[in-house]
Amino acid sequence: MNFFFVLNGKMIKQILLICMASFFTAWFLFLGNIVQVPVFSAKDGPKAVYKGEKDIALTFNIGWGDEKAEPILDALKKYNVKSATFFLSGSWAERHPDLVSRIVKEGYEIGMLGYEYKDYTELEEEKVRQDIANAQTAFKKLNVNNIQLLRSPTGHFDAKTLKIAQRYGYTVVHWSIDSKDWTNPGVKTITENVAKAKKGDIILLHASDSAKQTEKALPYILDSLKDYRLVTVSEMIANAESKSSEIK
């Protein structure tokens, strides 16, 4: 017995359209699963850098304390690390001018970590501007000029923060690898967190007194990164296209 199926042109067109729609839907879902880009910039506005294209940038936040910064500087010198970026709060810098001077003399880059440790997303615009202005004043008194990088004190920022930073001439810098050293999870865990880094990553470390294990982890961290060139954040930005995306 023979069966004959008669399909008119309209039906064939509908079937093809359904097949094409299904294919593209599946493709976009696939891309969505493999491409996960952090969301760190305002649409059509200023952007926050969180990743470059090559090399590795070590960054250290210092907001308080007078015990851990110097040993970390000693460790970097011992292991011949020439390039790193230190994000300093203005209030800490005022209290530790000798350490600030040492950071500069040893050739490390200084970025601004605001003045006080406050969440910029919870402050009114005027308060954010005032905090940045206070930090500027503090660094000028210490003869630290031409700071171009800003990191939000708590790491939290929004479109408001980005716009204010742009008005002051700063590039907001986030990170792509969090060592979580401030939680003091153990030298092994800190090292494993950093060892995930690939070319272009900006690594977050701390030299505040709350990070009690960072100094001990540094030799292992540096060994895990031995195949990469270490650069400052500014060098990373200058040498490659930095990455950012939209704040929703």
TrEMBL record:
Residues covered by the NodB homology domain: 54-233
Family annotation (Gene3D superfamilies): Glycoside hydrolase/deacetylase
PROSITE patterns: NODB
InterPro entries: Glyco_hydro/deAcase_b/a-brl, NODB_dom, PdaB-like, Polysacc_deacetylase_ArnD
NCBIfam families membership: spore_ybaN_pdaB
Protein name in UniProt: Polysaccharide deacetylase family sporulation protein PdaB
Protein source organism: Niallia oryzisoli
